[in-house]
Amino acid sequence: MLNRIVEHYSKRGAIQENLTVRIHDSISKIIEDNRGVAEMIEASHNCIQCRGVRHFGKSMKTSKLTGEFIETDKTRKEFYDFIKT
After folding, report:
1. Distance (Å, rounded) from C-alpha 40 to C-alpha 17?
2. Which candidate, 42, 45, 63, 77, has a CA 20 to 30 Å from the CA of 16?
């Protein structure tokens, strides 16, 4: 299910920050009575590699956290520790 949500939104041209918000909001709507959603996207951008700065193999990360992931330091730290690995 998550893969389909990401695929749906990523096929459209979008700024990564906006893509992060759209995916986050869709997940939040689907999961009823959730206490928060944490999402992180890491993506490499063709425009960075082909135009402008021409940085190959580079990626950018964006995240959106709500609910327990914002309100509780322990939960937020657990999420960020998990995605570091």
Report:
1. 10
2. 77
